[in-house]
Design a protein that fits this description.
By secondary structure, this protein is of the alpha/beta class. The protein has a domain of about 230 residues: 3-Layer(aba) Sandwich (D-Maltodextrin-Binding Protein, domain 2). Helix 7 packs antiparallel against helix 13. The chain is globular and about 60 Å long. The structure holds (2S)-2-hydroxybutanedioic acid (LMR). The site of (2S)-2-hydroxybutanedioic acid has 11 residues, from loops.
Length: about 350
């Protein structure tokens, strides 16, 4: 009997203690770790890319992270991994499709559906680029990339490309003959260099510097910002300002991740992306201009700017690539891009 009374008293005491503990927690009187409690609601987006932080894409990725952080008061965190530290450009598409990261921003050349944006002289100027990237043609292009694994969010810019060489200016189409030119893995770019009589060498971005150093390639094409941030100017002393093509990116999210977000969070990310995209297009233009000036004053590189007549010769030599693109992508979308902003 005594044992029974003692056991019952212990149980009642235990229950009372539990009730008191719970009410203290409810009143927040028991100390707990705010950060740990907040982590349950925190959403982390891993964003991998291949270029330096101080480039139009690197800065836009960080800008997007900052806007999202500010709009959600830190609840959604975008962690940016630059310089291929997680994945190279040949790996990142598989990685995002498999959900190993949530976001990437590969160049158009690395996405078959958008390769047509590699057509030479397709874009008149920066205003034209802005009209395409942020207008109906851009939406159309993004829809082409959507799949069960990929949610496309925006098109970002890195501006216009120039060609460089280690020992001469490439001016006339004939100057390309037999030159080994690094290209991105794009069949349309490959065809352009073949039409010029060059030997196109597709290489990952993170292999370019070393291949220039070992003289496995003689020249390459890229924007001033990529050329500058990766110090290609140490090895490529001749730049032709050709503005013959653009470098741009599709910003992509893993579809399963996107679909799990609440509609409110999706709206926040889309608003942040719209703000970032507008900023990116301006920033890309400015950055290329500023870094071109820096290169000019550094004396590291000598420049040659193609005249209108010289560009016309390139256009003629490269005309054939348009028929292939029309066959592969249809002439409608090419026309839509050409007419945007007119
Ligand atoms: C390149 O491979 O040259 C570019 O696509 C790199 C980049 O992402 O800007």
């Amino acid at each position: 009997m005594r044992y029974f009374i003692a056991a019952s008293a212990a149980t009642v005491f235990g229950l009372l203690a539990l009730l008191l503990f719970q009410s203290d927690v409810a009143k927040n009187e028991i100390p707990f770790d705010d950060e740990q409690a907040g982590l349950k609601n925190q959403l982390v987006i891993h964003f991998s890319h291949v270029v330096a932080e101080n480039t139009p894409k690197g800065l836009a990725a960080q800008k997007f992270a900052d806007i999202v952080e500010q709009k959600t008061e830190g609840r959604i965190k975008v962690l940016v991994y630059p310089n291929s530290v997680l994945f190279s450009d040949s790996e990142e598409l598989n990685a995002v499709q498999a959900g190993e990261v949530q976001m990437i921003a590969p160049s158009f050349s690395k996405l078959g559906q958008l390769e047509l944006l590699d057509l030479p002289f397709l874009f008149r100027d920066d205003d034209h680029l802005r009209s395409v990237f942020t207008g109906p043609a851009g939406k159309n292009l993004l829809n082409r990339v959507q799949s069960q694994d990929l949610k496309p969010l925006a098109l970002w810019s890195n501006g216009f490309k120039q060609v460089t060489h280690r020992e001469k200016h490439l001016v006339a189409p004939n100057d390309f003959k037999n030159e080994r030119m690094r290209i991105q893995p794009s069949s349309l770019i490959e065809q352009q260099y073949e039409l010029l009589g060059a030997k196109p060498v597709p290489l990952s971005f993170n292999d370019v510097y070393q291949s220039l150093e070992s003289q496995q390639i003689d020249g390459q094409e890229n924007t001033v910002s990529n050329f500058y941030s990766k110090r290609f100017y140490k090895l490529q002393k001749f730049m032709t300002i050709s503005n013959h093509g653009i470098l741009g990116y599709a910003v992509l999210m893993n579809m399963a991740f996107w679909e799990k977000l609440s509609s409110d969070d999706q709206a926040i990310l889309l608003a942040a992306m719209e703000e970032t995209t507008k900023w990116n297009i301006e920033q890309a233009k400015k950055m290329n201009e500023i870094q071109l000036e820096k290169l000019k004053t550094s004396g590291e590189v000598t420049f040659y700017e193609l005249s209108g007549a010289e560009k016309e010769k390139w256009r003629k030599a490269l005309k054939g690539v348009y028929s292939k693109a029309e066959q592969d992508y249809g002439s409608e979308i090419i026309k839509e891009i050409r007419n945007a902003g007119k």
